[in-house]
Amino acid sequence: MIAEYDSWIGKKEVYADQLTEINSTRLHYSLNLSGKPPSYGEPVFPLALLMLGEPSVPPDEVGLDGHPARGDFMPPVPLKRRMFAGGEYEFFQPLKVGDQVSVSWEITDITQKSGNSGELVFVNVLREFWVKETLCASENRTIVYTDSDPKSRPQTAPEKIGEWNEEMRTNSLQLFRYSALTFNGHRVHYDQPYATQVEGYPGLVVHGPLLATWLSLFAAKKSGLQLKKFKFSGKRPVFDLHHFTLSGENCGNNAAKLSVLDHQLQLAVTAEAEFFPS
Hints:
This protein is α+β, with helices and mostly antiparallel strands and 278 residues long. The chain has one domain (2-275): Thiol Ester Dehydrase, Chain A, CATH 3.10.129. Helices cover 15% and strands 36% of the residues. The chain is built from 4 helices and 10 strands. The protein has helices at residues 21-30, 172-181, 192-198, 208-223, and strands spanning 12-18, 81-91, 100-115, 118-131, 134-146, 164-168, 227-234, 244-252, 255-261, 267-275. It has a 10-stranded antiparallel beta sheet, with helices on one face. The chain is globular.
């Protein structure tokens, strides 16, 4: 299968976007963050960049799942489910409210694996965020395609909660707002009949990037430091039906290990943060 997708490796696109004050304010309140939202010219938190540079396509170019139809920029992988499996981020200069941002996309690799959950296809995409001639941040995102049954994940021993911990819960309104702000049409996040009856999930799926955003903010708050690098990997979905826990610990050397644990203390997301020295 992979050989037929070789022509997609190296494919590039560039999107012009703007980090507007109204969207920064909407994101701030949608995430229920404390304090006032940033004003024009002020920096935003690092993973606010997830609002930027997403492709805009008309409804007739959208697939059943709500994503842009496969076969244009992303390869036409025939597996049913598409998920944001993880991302690695490096932050060089803060993005600020009002910035005109050029976001480049490049498919850097496509790999196929087989395991207990069946066949998997991974597509790696490099995104860079430029303001004029300055590279402000980079993202290496991994998209995975699979036919696996979402009910097939076995239970494991409960994880221990870290020295840093915070219990959270989301809801359909917050998930819808985040989908809108990041222009993420994936229906599992806001269309409950589709999520449960078509894809077989027990409820609405919490976005992996939203969980990563909460972890990144949590790490910065607990450490009192600014993020330099951040990476996360999804292990199992989290749903709107139950609470979940942000967990972490200081590893020294301006670093932290983090995780999201579901309501049964099953490991849902792992993450690592590296901070600029104080």
